[in-house]
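Recall the central idea of this unit: under ordinary conditions, the amino acid sequence of a chain determines the structure it adopts. In this exercise we apply that idea directly, starting from the sequence alone.
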Amino acid sequence: MIPLRSMFLAAPIALGPALAIPALAEPVSFDAKDGVKIYGDFRRSEGQPRATILLFHMAGSNKSEYAPLAPILNKAGFNTLAIDQRSGGELWGDVNETAANARGSADFADALPDLDAAIAYSSMQRSGPIAVWGSSYSSALVFIAAARHPEVKALLAFSPAEYIQGYSIEKQAVKLTIPVFITSAPDGGEISSGEALAKAVPGHRAVQYIPQHGVHGSATLRTDEDPKGAAENWKHVMAFLNSAFPRG
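Accordingly, the structure predicted from this sequence is:
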């Protein structure tokens, strides 16, 4: 495990949420293997993409969790694809299209085919390497998905823990050979869960960042949810991404 506080942080560039110019979201849809239609928003990078980052939301949520975050990543040179998973809801004042059109309710584990489908769809676009980014329950799912998809080249997990019935996320972490970034709220339980997963990743490839100010999930980067910590937390996320996907 590499403590991120020891990593070199480059001089800040124009990454603050207030400075981001929103990229135009392109609505996309594709089918999971079980036939459920997955809805998402694709945003293109400014300039040649360094990678495509797949953005997966927390419980009760939808792709709008990333509406203020994706443009920052686009400005930094990353394509983004944020999807509605079948296990989700109407946080952020938006509708989860996948959940609304899927039949019946869905548990966290039921959303795994949605992540598989997003990886397959992005691979078909041939727009560079793929990174997976999970928030709360999906930050556990990304370990499972990355362990079985070699096309995934980096993983970011925001507040991961053993959320998924029928799976040991720690055992999935042991299988990884890619750079991993783990962060959480500055909460004892979340920190301990993140530490266990970071230690499980072999080869000291995992970075655990413990923020001074933060909240649960990817919302730790939203100024409306984490006004005290978002800017600092972004610096550490970008330091990891710059290390995993250096600019050409």
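The first strand starts at residue 2 and ends at 3.
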